[in-house]
Amino acid sequence: TVKVLFPEHLLFQKNLSTIEKENWPLMERFANALNKYSKTSILINGYTDITGGEALNERLSQNRADSAKSVLQSFKVLPERMYTWGLGNKHPIASNNTEEGRRRNRRVEFVILYSYEPDSSM
After folding, report:
1. How far apart are CA 87 and CA 48, in angstroms?
2. Separation of alpha carbons 104 and 62, rounded Å
């Protein structure tokens, strides 16, 4: 497996799950790379900062993951290769005590899974 983090992560505005158009070229390049390796699956994990309640954060993080999946799908990544998880405010990558830290925690991460099938003729 390989975890993919974009240079500034795929970040979201507070309480939003929309991927901004300025990130679409990056998503297109990522989709093109994914499309070259058809034996991979992609786990898309959405996250939030700690503001908001647990139920809201879980729903928002799922919507962020689904939004990333939708953008990749628009660039021809097959939906059956992608799985989404909304993980709420679990696994922060920065402190939630500052606005900058909370901004960094509002993100999506991608985990690339390679589907290996051993040669049965051996």
Report:
1. 8
2. 17
**DSSP-assigned letter for residue 97:** T
Say what the pLDDT of residue 117 is.
65
How many whole angstroms from its chain centre is CA 86? Answer: 9
What is the separation, in whole angstroms, between the first and last Cα of the chain? Answer: 25
Nearest to 68 by CA among 112, 31, 13: 31
Mean pLDDT, consecutive 10-residue stretches, the chain (122 aa), reads 73 88 92 93 96 95 97 97 97 94 93 75 56
The closest alpha carbon to 52, from 24, 89, 13, 8, belongs to 89
Give residue 122's pLDDT: 53
Cα–Cα distances in angstroms (integers) from residue 30 to residues 25, 86, 118, in the given order:
9, 21, 27
Task: Give the C-alpha separation, 86 to 44, whole Å.
Answer: 9
4-7: which pairs have CB atoms within 8 A and are 24 or more residues apart?
4/30, 4/109, 4/110, 4/111, 4/112, 5/109, 5/110, 6/30
